[in-house]
Structures are given as C-alpha cells and as structure tokens.
C-alpha cells in the first residue's frame, strides 16, 4: 500500500531510517530507563489486578520519578512522529475519528487512553507500549496520536521529538478555576506554538476567532477547517456564549453567521481582520435528529460526502478537524470516509443497554459542552427522560457558576420529570427552576438525589418501559454511574475497552 509521508521517520531514498532527536530506537535503552519502564509496568499490572481504577496515571508518575527522560526517549522512538490534538471540547472524539482514518491509510496510530491527556497519563501510555528493556514496541508505520490537555500542552510538546501537526479544535471558557479566562489559554498555546519546529503543521478551526488568530507571525504550514453552509447558521452569537474580541486588535467582532456558541463567519469591525478561508470546509451540514449529521465537503476529492454517526454540530466540527489533520499529514482522501466508522468514546454519548432501556452517557464539563449535548439530544424537540448531574471538586475545582451560562431555557418543557444528581444537585435544580423546567404536576416534578447511583435508579424508574434515557453530567456523577453499570455487568472496564477498541 502506498503510504503518505507524514513525517521524516520514514526510510530515506537510500533505505536508511533517520535517527531520532534523543536516541536511536534500535539502540540499547539505558538501564535507568529500563528500570523506570519496568516499575511503571509493574504498577500498571498491580493496579489492574487490585481493581484500583484503571491505572491511567500512576505508572507514568512512577516511571517519570525514576527516569524523567523516559517519556521523551520513548516518544522519540515513534517512527512517524506524533500528532497533538488539543482544545476545550472535542479533542478525544477528533482523535478517535483521526485514528480510524490513519488505520484506513495503513498507519498504526499509537493513542493515549481517555483521561490520560496529561504528562503522567501519556507516560503511562508509552510505558505500556515499551518492552521490559525500556524500548518502544512499534513498527515502521506507527504514528503518535495524542489528545493533550490544554494546560499540559507546553510540558508535553517539549517532550515530543517530531510533532508533525498540532490541532486546536476550539477554545471555550472551561474550568475557570484552573485555566482562568480564554486569554490565558491562548497565551499558553501561543507560547507552545512558538517552541515547535517550523515544519509542524497547525490545524486550526477557522470559525473560532480565538483559534484562527493563534500565533499569526509564525510561518508554519496552516490548515484551516470550518463550516460554509449558509442554511445552518444563525445571525447572532449564542446568547449563552462568551463573546470573543478580535484576535489582532481586540476590536468588536461582527458575525455573518454563527454555527454554534461563538463559532461562525466573523470579521473585525475595527481592523477588518476576517475569518481565514478554510481548506477543509463543509458546504452543507444536515443534522440528522439526535443521532448524527451528514456533511458535504467543499474540498476537492473523489469522496465529498461524509456521514458522521455522532450527534450535533460539535461532532460535525470534530469530523472536519480529523479530515483537515489527515490532509495536513498527506493522507489520501480515500481514507477520509473511515470517519464514518467512529464509535462513541466512553461517556461520549456512549450507549448502554440496561433492562429494556437504551441509556446514553454523555459528559458535559463546561457551559458550551452542556448546551451542545442537550441541544443535540433534544434537536427533534421530542420530550426525553434525563438524569442531569453536577459535581465540583472542593478545594481543587470549586467553580460551577458556569451552569448559569448553559442554555437550559430554550429547552424548557422537553425533559419531563428530570432527576438531578451530584454534590451540587441543589444548585442545578435552582438553575433549572429559573430556566422554567420546574412547574406543577407530575410531568414537571423534579427529583433531587445527590447520590449518583440512587439518582440513576430513580431516573430509570421514571422512564416509561422501552424508552431511552440520557445521563448528561460532569465527570464525577458519570464515573459513579459507569462504575455501578460495570459492577452490574452492563459495560466493560474502561481500560479493557480502550485496549480492545482504540
Ligand atoms: Zn481587529
């Protein structure tokens, strides 16, 4: 099979493989690295045997304590470099889609597991792929494909010997107590971009002014993606969205159309800066109820239509990000339809059969995420049964004020008898009351049950026989529900699932 270039790790014309920045993949690993990898692997095995979580970070922590250079050395041994995917929302799903495309093109993507998008998590992934002598087990077609937490990007990017592409999906207000305002995240990303090699491709969302305007002075190759469907957009930015200013002059932006939140066709009213023209654009986006979307790509190529089997315009954007990245890597366009094979990630509208109900688990961790998940599920305006959750992390991530930015208001009346859960269930109930979700009579009766498992059982009991039920929540409630579902035998452990399907 003819493979695309992707990076400089492929054999040269004379058949010699170029050596990596931090050592030869074929050489003997130093003893210290071997010890670090062995200790990490032992910790991974032990944590799985003991059932102590899925061991996504502890092995990496241990390995890095023994040999701080272990991660960089293992990353340097990936023959075809690495693609880094970051952003507030959609990075995991974009990676899942891109992994499908890469496999279709004959590559072997080495991906980090869900929840392993910070330094120790990535180290855990790499340790798992090394042998006991500390050498990476990878064939010539292996390419790194890593979802990276925005806050961890500078740290991780420094360790990657050959970053072939940096993908930024979008920048929303997210985890205010950790990242402060979007301006902080923008500064963080730009600092990181300035440290990357000049040939690292930047794959950027043209419709997000915060992303499109990143580090404009850099001459790196840029691949923009966006939506060009005049029938889909609204005239005004989402009222629940925060309004970005011009990335160049801080002037006020004008929108010709808005696809969701602050994503759309924007231009500055002060300096005239406009949205860059995307190389990968969806000329038509048809949202198919609460199940998916159909895209017609404006880019050249034999295949111009894609069916995205995941709901909402946010997943249409994830598909465009995956195709744009594949383009930046020189993958053939006949591999793009592999996006259609993507399955929902754990907690990303994951479907679980419980008794005679289809239950969908959907993570919503910030205002835009929560809004878009609810809109996707309720897009057909047919009432649906739901458990909604809200949790904070006292002392670590105490902020949940963003629920006042979620657009519950326009969905009032579509969720009869909701159940709310989590340690901030009462706050969520107050929010829903202000949004008009709670009235009188059994159909608008809300149940407040902080315990996630009891709340799940209550929500299921409120769901008529045979009907589906959705659990939309922040991380903690969903994890508790999923753990209980695993104990009952309805779903697999996360790590088993990842090793089997990713
Ligand atoms: Zn401007």
How many DSSP helices? Answer: 15
* Alpha carbon gyration radius: 23 Å
Structural class: alpha/beta
CATH architecture of the largest domain, please? 3-Layer(aba) Sandwich
DSSP strand count: 17
CATH class of the largest domain: Alpha Beta
Note the beta-strand portion. 15-25%
- Roughly how much helix do the residues carry, as a percent range? 25-40%
What can be said about the biggest beta sheet? 9 strands, mixed
**How many domains in all?**
2
CATH topology of the largest domain: UDP-N-acetylmuramoyl-L-alanine:D-glutamate ligase
CATH evolutionary superfamily of the largest domain: Mur-like, catalytic domain
Termini gap: 22 Å
Shape: globular
Average pLDDT for all residues: 85
Low-confidence stretches: 1-5, 7-27, 495-502
Strand order of the largest sheet: 2-3-1-4-5-6-9-10-11
Bound molecules: zinc ion
What does the model show?
The structure is a single chain. The protein is α/β, with parallel strands linked by helices. The protein folds into 2 domains: 84-113 and 140-341, 3-Layer(aba) Sandwich (UDP-N-acetylmuramoyl-L-alanine:D-glutamate ligase), CATH 3.40.1190.10; 348-501, Alpha-Beta Complex (Protein-Tyrosine Phosphatase, Chain A), CATH 3.90.190. Helix content is 31%, strand content 19%. The protein has 15 helices and 17 strands. It has helices at residues 31-49, 58-66, 70-76, 91-104, 119-128, 153-159, 176-179, 182-194, 209-212, 313-328, 367-377, 425-434, 452-462, 475-487, 494-501; strands spanning 82-86, 108-111, 142-147, 163-168, 201-205, 222-227, 253-260, 263-268, 280-288, 292-297, 305-308, 348-354, 357-363, 385-389, 419-421, 447-448, 469-473. The strands form 3 sheets. The chain has a 9-stranded mixed beta sheet with strand order 2-3-1-4-5-6-9-10-11. The protein has a 6-stranded mixed beta sheet with strand order 12-13-17-14-15-16, sandwiched between helices. A two-stranded antiparallel ribbon has the order 7-8. Residues 1-5, 7-27 and 495-502 have low confidence and may be disordered. The structure holds zinc ion. The site of zinc ion has 8 residues, from loops. Zinc ion (ZN) binds at residues 246, 248-249, 251, 268, 270-271, 273.
